[in-house]
Structures are given as C-alpha cells and as structure tokens.
Specification:
two-stranded antiparallel sheet; eight-stranded antiparallel β-barrel; mainly beta
C-alpha cells in the first residue's frame, strides 16, 4: 500500500511539472554577453607568426523569444577587438547572427542550454570591413534563472569563411580566402519579460 501511494505521488508530481512546463507563458529574453575568443587557426598570417586576425575579446547584445516548449529563437550583434600583430591599429570583428537555443531544465532554477548560430561576419581596421563571410557557432551554456534575471557561462566553437584580405604590411599583396576558427568563453547577463 505504501509503495502504491509513493508511486501515485511521484506520478502526480511528474504530471504537474509537465503541465507547468506546457502552460508557462511566452518569454522575451534579452541582454549582453562578455566573451573571450581564442584563435584555433588563422589563414591571415605571414611567416606563420605574424597574423592579422588573432585572439581577442568583446561584447555581444542579444534578444529573442522563448516559446512554451523552451525553444529560444533570436538574434544579436557582437563586436570584438583582436590581436592584429600591429598590422592593424584596431582590428575589429563584427558579427550579426541568428541564434537558436534549447533550455533543458536541470533543477528549479538551473538550465543546460545547447545553442547554435548562423551569421555574417566582417573584419577590418577601426570598424571598416576589409573582408567578410558567413559564420557558424555551436556550443553550450549553463544558466541560472532567478526571478527575471539570467546569469550564465558558456563555451563554443566558431568557424568563419572570410574572403581574401589585403596584407596591411605589403601593399598590393593579398592573403587568400580562409577559414579562421575560434574557441570562445562567455559570461551571459540577461533579463526576461513574460507576456
């Protein structure tokens, strides 16, 4: 009899949690991320060590809609300053991306959030676009949702196909098109609004 009551209670709790998840209101989520980007490979190098596009760091602004099924669809803009081996005065990588996430609950306030992004990136000196191309990002994050605040830590791999780039140190010389890759660590600071 005791076993039957425990099993019934567990079933009731699971059904209640499932109903709560299905009826949770839609959410608008927005905020910023601070990221460090570590270059895994760079096609724009001279003598193997002098690279126009190296490691860096920057800030991202993001916004999106979290549906009842915990899918997040959104977009964002981010920029990061990168080591350019003094070939650029200020090497800036800019990106506009479409983001997709799934918020998998780990507990009352914790979520595991795998995510991916497709976008367009541009790189140049002091906010100019000297080369550009499509980008793909894949990663995961752990987030804490408390009241209307979201704090998370994530890591990701990103690959960008960039067009050929003029060599700033050798006028008339070009680096061939290539596929730089980065490993990123980020801190997410976001907020939610239910509707």
């Amino acid at each position: 009899m005791l076993t039957a009551r425990i099993a019934f209670a567990e079933t009731t709790l699971v059904q209640t949690a499932q109903i709560a998840q299905r009826t949770e209101p839609n959410v608008f989520q927005f905020g910023i991320a601070i990221a460090g980007k570590f270059a895994l490979s760079s096609p724009f190098c001279r003598s193997g060590t002098t690279c126009v596009l190296g490691s860096g760091g920057g800030i991202a602004a993001r916004f999106g809609h979290v549906f009842r099924e915990r899918w997040y669809i959104g977009g964002g803009y981010d920029f990061s300053k990168h080591d350019a081996s003094l070939l650029y005065r200020l090497g800036i990588l800019q990106q506009v991306r479409a983001d997709g996430r799934y918020q998998y609950p780990l507990g009352k306030a914790w979520f595991l959030v795998p995510f991916s992004s497709l976008g367009v990136s541009g790189y140049g000196n002091e906010w100019t676009i000297d080369t550009w191309g499509p980008s793909l990002t894949v990663g995961t994050a752990v987030e804490a949702h408390v009241a209307n605040s979201v704090v998370g830590v994530g890591f990701s791999w990103q690959g960008i196909y960039l067009q050929r780039l003029a060599n700033p140190g050798q006028p008339g010389e070009f680096f061939s098109a290539g596929f730089p890759q980065f490993f990123s660590l980020e801190l997410r600071l976001e907020s939610t609004e239910r509707f």
